[in-house]
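Lab notebook page, bench 4
Experiment: in silico fold of construct C2
Operator: M.H.
Input chain length: 143 residues
Purpose: comparison with the prior construct
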Amino acid sequence: MGKFVELDYDEWESIYKPIKNHLDPNASFDGYMFETYDSELEFVKSQRPDHIWMYGDGDDGGTYIWSGWGFINRIGYFITEVPCPPTDTIQVLVSHNWYYCENCDAEMEDPDNLIRDAFQEQDLEKCPKCATIEELTLVALEK
């Protein structure tokens, strides 16, 4: 049985070496991502499975790249020069969760959903930037 390996994007890029999307000069991720439809999808499907990586939304709200082909929560695909080891599963963190405040339009990283959970539990549509001292005390966060 293989290993479960977690990498950040820079580590993954230097180890597995994604190839440029030759079909779209304006592709996402500085030209490396392939779309999930039309000629780009056909190109991805024509590649060796151990060179295919799926980019998508994680269950925790972050975005990830996973080794292999997938459909659930997919946003796009990457093809790499270096294959993924056949028995390993690799997960690449691309971005953490973000909390968006409907009240003041602030955006902030919330990797463990602590802000979201604290404010939703008290049914407050605010964030640490716009909440009053009383509301921060209520959600057990300090300014």
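Observations: Helices lie at 9-16, 28-31, 38-45, 114-121, 133-138. The chain has two domains: 4-95, 98-138.
Next step: discuss at group meeting.
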